[in-house]
Design brief:
Elements (H helix, E strand, L loop, with lengths): L5 H8 L4 H15 L5 H7 L5 H27 L4 H15 L8 H11 L4 H6 L5 H16 L2 H6 L7 H15 L9 H24 L3 H30 L14
Helix pairs in contact: 2-12, 4-5, 4-6, 4-8, 4-12, 6-11, 8-12, 10-11
Length: about 260
């Protein structure tokens, strides 16, 4: 008599071990995370003028503002109550929960305020590059449309985030006289938040990715998220570091 479980058993037999699975994910960061992008190195190395830093902060706001939307999209189709409970704090981390905890988006706006950008203009996203907005919405749609385990996996660039946050804090404070410790509050807070979130998401996909194909799809999701972050810096580099490439309607720095 045939055993209908044979196919699944074969798939499980081909699976990576938990350590191999994690190593495959971390290898994506080693190769593709945006700390390796030329614009990142210019930003943290003090090679940009104030207007170029403003352009980065204004465009990055689009991503920051989209994070709770993508998390809400994930929760809206999640029947696992424990996952919803865990994921809920991510929305509060960014949107805040009141005056005592204003949230990451507000801390990002403190950064853009400190850079001299009009807050309403930043929030409107009118001056953001089209490529930035397209990339951000692609991420929101990915999380909305992909299977839940793969959607969770796309958040795992947080494994690599503390390193880039430390570089931003030290590099920008050291190299720009228009940056002070107050406007770096977003990054300091994420030094604690990102590892906590990454640990949970990594444990979740290790448990719930049950075939080699699904494991590989999770690794591809991390690649996709790295691409989302990388292409935003591509657009900034093209528009604001190479002269004459600022598209119509985009933010134009005074310096």
């Amino acid at each position: 008599m045939s055993d209908r479980r044979t196919g699944e058993t074969a798939q499980r037999g081909d699976m990576w071990s938990a350590d191999e699975f994690e190593a495959a994910i971390r290898a994506v960061g080693a190769e593709r995370y945006h700390d390796k992008h030329p614009f990142h190195k210019l930003l943290h190395g003090g090679k940009l003028n104030k207007g170029q830093v403003q352009a980065w902060a204004l465009n990055r706001y689009c991503y920051q503002a989209a994070v709770p939307r993508k998390d809400a999209a994930l929760m809206a189709r999640c029947h696992d109550r424990e996952l919803r409970r865990e994921w809920m704090h991510r929305i509060l981390d960014h949107d805040g929960s009141g005056p005592e905890e204003p949230g990451g988006i507000e801390r990002w706006l403190v950064l853009t305020d400190g850079l001299g950008l009009d807050r309403d203009y930043v929030i409107s996203r009118k001056g953001a590059l089209a490529a930035t907005k397209f990339a951000v919405e692609a991420y929101v749609n990915f999380v909305r449309e992909q299977p839940l385990t793969i959607a969770v996996a796309s958040s795992l660039t947080e494994l690599f985030a503390p390193k880039i946050h430390r570089e931003r804090i030290s590099g920008m404070l050291e190299n720009y006289d228009f940056i002070d410790d107050k406007v770096m509050a977003y990054f300091r807070r994420r030094l604690d938040q990102a590892p906590r979130d990454a640990d949970f998401a990594l444990a979740y996909i290790k448990e719930h990715a049950r075939t080699r194909e699904e494991q590989e799809a999770c690794v591809d999701a991390v690649r996709f998220k790295c691409d989302v972050l990388w292409v935003q810096l591509d657009a900034l580099h093209h528009a604001y570091f190479e002269p004459g490439n600022i598209p119509p309607g985009a933010f134009r720095p005074e310096s």
